[in-house]
Amino acid sequence: MSVQREGGCTCGAVRYRLTSDPLFTHCCHCLNCQRQTGSAFVINLLIEADRVQLLAADPQPIEVPRDDGSKQTIFRCPTCQVAVFSEYGRPEVRFVRAGTLDQPSKVAPDVHIYTRSKLPWVTLPDSAPAFEEYYDTKALWPAASLERLEAIMAPASSDA
Ligand SMILES: [Zn+2]
Ligand SMILES: [Zn+2]
Question: So what's the pLDDT on residue 153?
């Protein structure tokens, strides 16, 4: 089932539409996400970049250092600076911040990751698996999502 999802920043300059369901939804409890959001965790919808349709202003990419020395690109509204999505070294996949959806309550995490730094007062539900660090995508993602991932990664590997 494909449900249209729309969202945007606080001032309304950036608006986006997800043209399909996400590949998978992460709830990340790592220290980077806690610092970036100023909160307990972030909820990211992983989806192909070409399925994030921009309806108004283009979010501005900002390179942000991570604790492991890598870089992450956070896309922010050029006006109000609210972060709408991120990219982690693979431009084919966007990590859309679920809190920027018009209806964040429509989304629930498929997995909790980096629970080693989960705040102690956050209690996780039994309905989604949880991992101290990361997890094996192939073991957890639905077959349809793995096929979609393979489809967008294929051109990159043939270039190599
Ligand atoms: Zn804005
Ligand atoms: Zn994180």
Answer: 87
